[in-house]
Amino acid sequence: MVSSFWSLNPEHSFIIGLRLLLTFAGAMLFLNAARSLPPPQAERLCTILLISAGLFLVLFGLTTGKNSLMFQLLHDPARFHTDDDKGRFNTGMAILALISWAFLVVVAKRFGMRLATLMLVAVLVILFFAMTRAVFLAFGLGMVGAIATYILGRRPLAIIFLSLAGIVFLMPFFLSLLFKIEFFRSIDKASLEYVEWSTMHRLLIWKFAITRFWEHPWLGWGMDVSRFLPGGNEPAVTWIQGSELLPLHPHNGALQIWLELGWGGALLTVACLLSTWRLLTKLEKGRIWLAAATGAIITFFLLSLLSFGIWQSWWQTTLCFAFTLLVLAGRPPENRAPNGAML
Prior knowledge:
By secondary structure, the protein is mainly alpha-helical. The chain is built from twelve helices and no strands. Helix 4 (83-111) packs parallel to helix 6 (133-152), helix 4 (83-111) packs antiparallel against helix 11 and helix 6 (133-152) runs antiparallel to helix 7.
């Protein structure tokens, strides 16, 4: 909200900041409710969560790939491009990738780690055949972090969170160096035989965004004003209709924070990551829960880095929902003494 004082679009930045504040307040209410829910109700909700896990896997298994049953039913075959319809499926795959970590905790507590591991592998296979590689990559690296945390406990957290903080802090400097290399500087002239259009377009977006960032590096252009930047609606290439240099957001959460909020936003993001690391080291919820929380954080971070706008309300809500489910799944089972008193 503070960035509205110098924003390219003050009213829009203020509204987005207010919405973010309200989303955070709502998330705190949900998290507190999940923590204070009576044990019998928490157990019933975990049972519902378990049933939902099975339904999710079946449903998203049917939506995997362009030739899947659900895609054929919902896609308009008259269109030449499938990008508009892909967005709907990719959003669902991202939601599945995040909330699967809560499913992991419930399945592991009820049926053991073997079945929980099989469930994670099933999710990974579904994501592999999806129409985007970003979700598969984010979830796969989340699994690597989760496995390391499950085996080694809290020790890998320092490497994981310092790496995430380093990615945020170094992003504009890395991209500036990247686009000094001839191949990336002239990526729009590359052959589609060697570079997929989605990859080329993303690189063109980042190239444009990093150029605009250095025009206002200290304070940024204002919260969520990427869509309003001068020149952003110009065509990225002339040979694909509708391609824009900056459609809505940079498809890179770290770059978006630097671009819109400058040094202040970047340092605040780094501080939030380090605070999350400190919080996880203090929680006593067992190895399974810690591994799932680590996997969820990595998955969210990488998807924000590769695909979605960091301020998109559905994406923020998905994060809040996923961690509310994680808190609920991490609740200890109800134990009662012989006289009925809680242990």
